[in-house]
User: Fold this.
Amino acid sequence: MMKKVFERVYLALLLIFMYAPIVTLIVLSFNSSKSRAKWGGFTLNWYVNLMSDEAVASALVNTLTIAVLATVFSTIIGTFTCIAMIGISKKMRSVIMGITNIPMINADIVTGISLMLLFRFLHLSSGFSTILLAHITFNIPFVMLSVMPRIKNMNFYVYEAALDLGASPAYAFSKTVLPDLVPGIVSGALMAFTMSLDDFIITYFTKGSGFETLSTLIYSEVKKGIKPEIYALSAIIFVVVLVLLFIVNRAPASKTNKK
Amino acid sequence: MGKDLITLEHITKSYDGTTILDDLNLSIYENSFVTLLGPSGCGKTTTLRIIGGFEKPDMGRVIFDGQDITSLAPNKRQLNTVFQKYALFTHMNIADNIAFGLKIKNKSDAYIRDKISYALKLVNLEGYENRMPDSLSGGQQQRIAIARAIVNEPKVLLLDEPLGALDLKMRQDMQYELKRLKEELGITFIYVTHDQEEALTMSDHIVVMNQGYIQQEGSPEKIYNEPENAFVADFIGDSNIIRATMVRDKLVDILGAKFDCVDTGFGENKPVDVVIRPEDVELVAPEAGTIEGVVTGLTFKGVHYEMDVMANGYEWLVHSTKLSEVGSKIGIKVDPFNIQIMNVPESEDEEAISETV
Amino acid sequence: MKLFKNKKSAYLMSSPYIAWALIFIVVPLCMVIYYGLTDSHGAMTFSNIATIAKPGYLKALRRSVVLALASTLVCFILAYPLGMILSSMKLKRNTFLVTLFILPMWMNFLLRTLTWMTLLEGKGVINTVLEFLHLPTINIINTPSAIILGMVYNFLPFMILPIYNSLSRIDDNVINAARDLGANSLQTFLRITLPLSVPGIISGITMVFIPALTTFAISTMLGGSKILLIGNVIEQEFTQLYDWHLGSGLSIVLMIFILINMVVESIFDKQGGLS
Assistant:
């Protein structure tokens, strides 16, 4: 019984540690006093200001565009490469996977610097395109690492059975191999999207001046001093994440329920 | 047989409102091979886990060697368990796996070394000390799990479906192995399985369970030849279970034909269930049988033929070494001794309960 | 495995990625090494790497290692009991709780750090509450403690997940078997549970230690401008001082640390898995 109580208390304390800061941020986003420590009454001003803040709006658009594009490209390239790996010699496969692992293991700061050096060397003007290239690069490993296990465990006799039953290779592939890969592809894509949204360090080194994503914008704002609008932004982001997670978790659950 | 070693008294256990065991009473004799047999969910594994100390009963007592051990922790009990899927410690080699219990008890290194080699010899795996569990086959891992348990010299070895994960050939070999081990060690084995063949092959005493109740207990011969209700008859081997009417003592009406039998005391014109084993059905010339039928199915099984015979609206299952072609007319005869009469349960609940009273 | 008519088509299909990986992974790394090993005239030199031995740089490196180790340790101490509690729970409840613990990870990394700026400031939320309760205020913003706190808060989920996964993968019957063989709870934990969770601990340590060692944002935001970590030093070389050679040289030092970390971990991993 004592053990149960201790476990509950421990869980509660850690949850408070994780969530109290976030709750504080959300509360402060409604605080009309500019001083963070005093409660000056309820206001929606910071939200209103945020809506009319063009820097935030363009950073938000940039962040989402880059995340979506990087996810799409990295998912396609990653999945195709994983499928191609089936037909490649084992040695070559381990070389490719070894290289793929580098951005995962290496420190983000080194990856960011190395890409910055490359872009400067190629005289690519820093901005949207360099960030996108960088994001695709660090996203591909996430896609491949979640698709590869599926490929390894796949039963290729099903594919051969489909061919045997008269299906064309393309049809057999889309009806047998692809459905098996879908869960891996989806989780890889989700992971890539999250990583893209959350990335700061690599973006920071490849963005150049005058182009901001949410992360880099917050970083430069914070250096100048925190504006209450940032709290409003945090609150919105948290709620959006919460809703998205809820939807993502709900979708597969309702499917399995029907079965 | 010997004296009672373990007694379960009025054991009741439920999970989330579902009753798994209901007022279970069971005595296990010293030095016997007892099998708890039943379909999945019948409560056999829960019974074993209560004996092992991994579950606490909601009500009732577990008596071990005269002492109440109901709430004693598993590590304080003088019995050891061989788990489903072996539960070997994958981060230790075979020697360390076997030595685990002995090291906990601070036995000397020399003693432990002797015990390991003795146990490995006993399970025919000499020289495997330094192998890792993952490098062994399922059957070998099973033997190690047994060796790991018996080096602690338990008074009772609990085995929870230990052969379930093995293939057929391996399972049959291990059955003999376990019987041999039981003879050599001279301790009590409590064995849980859903496989009636395993139970019949190895046990001294079988406890058939269903829905948390004991349906019947007794020697393998008794359970097989004299099932006390339709559940036991159906679960142990293939049977013809037919609703019939007891005309009077020693005469039963099966599917409209009168059969002589040996049972008495069921009253007159009372509904009963009869059990007739497929190998006890004799196929004779149509006019020589008690009832007439037509062979509708035939399968060669190696030792015998398995035939389906349609007679008086019931499809009889027949095992015979003599072949009758499909479509041929035959007669059915049953020796009076081979007709087992059982009371008809009045409700499903009673069916489960009937033998616990 | 006849998905491909011949090997050629498989290689053809993988060639775009191979080209991509060469251009965007291998070549950039080679460039870091090239810059790190040359001076501004293109002559080969080790002086960039040797700079790490200079007092200011060495201090930053030492501080980085100490803070990263400390925050990794704190994360481990917090996460292990949590992993045990979560893995002992019934499935329905624990998936919800695990999600709850990793949920903050989906919030932007900088916002997570920003919260602690707000909380810890001299006249921040925590001190206001403490003052209101007539308790002594704490002043840890712009100190190493604040940086550790920020690292722990940011990277704790990276420790929780692998530990929880490795613990929940342990078969209940393996624990039961140890109890059955006479081990008490403590012996069972030390001899069975802990060794079997080593792979999870190791990947948790990697996932916390490397980002903690190389961060510069957390130290900038919570450490003020005075506490420089090796990450800050490298960042400044590139974005303010434009000394790419020195910055690359220091990056090589960082990579050496990552390599050492990997080697140490693979040794531990082998021990955990074999002995």
